Amino acid sequence: MPLPDDAQLISVDDHVVEHADVWQDRLPDRHKELGPRVERNELGHDIWHYEGKTFANIGLNAVAGKPREEYGVEPTAYEDMIPGCYDPRERVKDMDLDGIQAQLCFPSMPGFAGSTFFGMDDKDLALACVQAYNDWHIEEWCAAAPERFIPLVLVPLWSPDDAAAEIARTARMGARAVSFSEAPHRLGLPSFNSDHWDPVLAAAQEHSMPLCLHFGSGGVPETSPDAPFAVLIALFGMNSQFTATELLFSPVFRKFPDLRVCLSEGGIGWIPYLLERCDYTWERHRHYLDLELKVPPSEIFRDHIFGCFISDDAGIAALDRIGVEQVMWECDYPHSDSNWPNSRKLLTESLRHLPDDQALAIAETNARRVFSFTGGR
Amino acid sequence: MPLPDDAQLISVDDHVVEHADVWQDRLPDRHKELGPRVERNELGHDIWHYEGKTFANIGLNAVAGKPREEYGVEPTAYEDMIPGCYDPRERVKDMDLDGIQAQLCFPSMPGFAGSTFFGMDDKDLALACVQAYNDWHIEEWCAAAPERFIPLVLVPLWSPDDAAAEIARTARMGARAVSFSEAPHRLGLPSFNSDHWDPVLAAAQEHSMPLCLHFGSGGVPETSPDAPFAVLIALFGMNSQFTATELLFSPVFRKFPDLRVCLSEGGIGWIPYLLERCDYTWERHRHYLDLELKVPPSEIFRDHIFGCFISDDAGIAALDRIGVEQVMWECDYPHSDSNWPNSRKLLTESLRHLPDDQALAIAETNARRVFSFTGGR
Fold it and tell me: How far is residue A21 CA from its own chain's centroid?
């Protein structure tokens, strides 16, 4: 058995669907009226309302349990989803079905890195929304089964100082990771090359909270206007290739040598190519470009960046070039790229050629180390 | 010896620098005044002039023979370059130095796929410029050593019918391949999903001329505005990943089952990941997306698309997942990513673990088959 029966799978990319009262339960009274709330419309659809705007998709891509033929039909009401999408106790039952010990869950309505709140006009309300999400996520979702969830928090993207304070506040509550944008410059914010994010990066480093940069938290890959939607889906991992390259040549890890970054839902099979290409670029072009980077980018990667995959046999076959310690596994429940409830079976199959210790590192121990998570052990 | 001493290296991506009289020698009299010509300015720089515009870089990135510390300094006059850049007889001597039998050369001033001419206001002049380039390339450059050069032609991107006629015209002159845009939609033209290009694709298929889609012929990867230039260089291969995915999910190869496409200067190490990801996407999402594609994208790839690399050990290590028949080698003379005059030595080193027949396929016989080229044998 390459993956021991007693291995406790840790999935580092799953998704919560926020229940209808997450914000109304927790926002200060002055913000309740404009803050997010769900209303059911005449078609029976549950719609988020905030600041006079509406957001029709309460459970984007929450298709777990449906046949593939129905994947494209997004749920329009809570009862269209299996309860594990929005109820942590039901989620745990679904994890048990699939042999998964713990999940790291990203938000739905707020956007993977909280870009919905970044788009709000009233930034006082927006900060309250970030904090309400984090409080709900830690005190209600994760607290329902602390051995089964790794708390992942949002930050106010518009204020690095407030973001640093929110990291410190949530760290005291038990948060273990920060969901941040993979490409802040694509949101109209300064890039990782600037000093703008130093307070955020310093706080993440100080509290040993990795930044999780989920695909789509900095836009989507550009396709031709008439390309089938499948092209966009197939290209998800491009974003992580861009982000990894930006980070490797940026000053981020020189300034914050203990900071760690996870490329969530980015895949891993491209990593050997990209690291070789980055090193080739560094070797040939650093002299005249006057690069500040004094070591090959691949060395920076191995100290700081983690690749995450749902299913990626090309990457598993090239583990020696990636580094076994740099790879973590994802279930992606309840999205359409997930293999739930057959994740454990398929992961075991995918890792069958590896030595036990390598399979265990990918399925469990790397994630425990990266997120300082001991739940279940 | 994994690469036999008598292997004749065929490089499928190199670059010519057009000499100062290419267009003035060949344009009809009515077009000479506005057509491209070189003038030396007061700083001693050789500058292209056409249609009242100037183009300062006569030999973009033509740095062969310079130390790496000087790579960033683009040549500003012909005498800044080694003569092999613009003189085919000198080029052959440089190929002999490096143990290379033949090259497939892309243009410089016209842009890899002729986008300079696409940007001209006078499309009658522009067509004459395309034809003058092709005539020069075949009758002067390649004819100087027909056993050493594979003729690669441009087409008028603004007119599919004229482009088809130019393919037919140059095929009769011995042209073996067409340089086309990797992403025509990024030039403001219809995408590969449209029927717009059918005349071009039909002509390329009819004359067994592969389309060579060079990195940069459809824009450059988008980086953050303050990223070091190294990020852009490292990300060259992203363009080919986008192009491959667009093509695989497009109707192109269903309509033209004998058409072949080369991803020039795109690298190969990412191919196993991308094919697996495309197949995963197809497997899970084709039902509700109603994709017309009836076989996995990886099957389409293996019948139609060729990966090309300068140096790519990650790709060589994953050849079984790419397909040995799908890979060709590139020298990239005289650009800064080239290893000239040590290309053969480094390629031999890179292929040392392969069986002789696989090394020979990559270094020579695949390119001979794809381009129907027998020069030297």
Answer: 23
Helix (H) or strand (E) holding A238: helix A236-248
Q: Output the CA torsion sign for B183, B261, B153, B131.
A: negative
Smallest CA-to-CA distance from A46 within A35, A57, A36 is with A57
> Which ipTM was obtained for this model?
0.97
Question: CA B20, CA B367: separation in Å to the nearest integer?
Answer: 31
CA angle centred on B257, ends B254 and B258, rounded to 5°: 155
Task: Find, among B331, B326, B337, B314, the residue nearest to B361 by Cα.
Answer: B326
Q: How many Cα atoms occupy the beta-carbon half-sphere of A97 within 13 Å?
A: 15
Q: Decide if domain A9-370 falls under CATH 3.90.1140.10.
A: no
Nearest CB to A285: which of B71, B278, B317? B71
Q: Find, in chain A, the residue whose alpha carbon is nearest to that of B279.
A: A234
Which residue in chain B has the smallest CA separation from A317? Answer: B318
Confidence of residue B230 (pLDDT cuts 50, 70, 90): very high
Cα–Cα distance between A138 and A306 in angstroms, integer?
Answer: 24
3-state secondary structure of A147: coil
CATH code of the domain made up of B9-28+83-370: 3.20.20.140
Kindly identify which residue of chain A lies nearest to residue B234, measuring between CA atoms. A278
Which chain B residues have a beta carbon less than 8 Å from that of A233?
281, 285
Q: Which residues on chain B are in Cβ contact (under 8 Å) with A268? A: 273
- What 8-state DSSP symbol labels residue A99? T
Band (B219; pLDDT cuts 50, 70, 90): very high
Residue B110's nearest CA partner among B27, B18, B213 is B18
Is the minimum CB–CB distance between B53 and chain A shorter than 8 Å?
no
> Which among A245, A273, A291 is the nearest to B267, CB-wise?
A273
State the virtual CA torsion across A279, A280, A284, A286 in degrees, nearest 10: -30
Q: Tell me the CA end-to-end span of chain B in Å, nearest whole number.
A: 21
The CA radius of gyration of chain A, in Å to the nearest whole number, is 20
Separation of first and last alpha carbons in chain A: 21
CB A204 within 8 A of CB A167: yes
Per-residue pLDDT of A265-318, as tens digits, reads 999 999 999 999 999 999 999 999 889 999 999 999 999 999 999 999 999 999
Task: Give SS3 for B337.
Answer: coil
**Least CB-CB distance to A245: which of B235, B277, B289?**
B235
State whether residue A374 sits within 8 Å of chain B by CB. Answer: no
Task: Copy the structure tokens of residue B81.
Answer: 């370059």
B346 at A interface, C-beta within 8 A = no
Own/partner pairs for B218-221, CB < 8 Å, 24+ apart? B218/B181, B218/B182, B218/B183, B218/B184, B218/B185, B218/B186, B218/B187, B218/B243, B219/B183, B219/B186, B219/B187, B221/A242
**CA-CA distance, A330 to A322, in Å (whole number)?**
17
- Bridge partners of B105, per DSSP, are B14
- Establish if B285 touches chain A: CB-CB under 8 angstroms: yes
Domain extent listing, chain A: 9-370
Query: Which chain B residues are Cβ-neighbours of A249 within 8 angstroms?
Result: 227-228, 230-231, 234
Res. A1 pLDDT band, cuts 50 70 90: low
The answer to whether residues B200 and B158 touch, using CB atoms and an 8 Å cutoff, is no
Other CB atoms within 10 Å distance of the CB of residue A146? 13
What confidence score (pLDDT) does residue B1 get?
A: 55
Alpha-helical runs (H) found in chain B: 29-32, 88-97, 115-118, 123-135, 160-173, 198-206, 229-234, 236-248, 252-255, 271-289, 297-304, 313-317, 319-322, 343-350, 356-360, 366-370
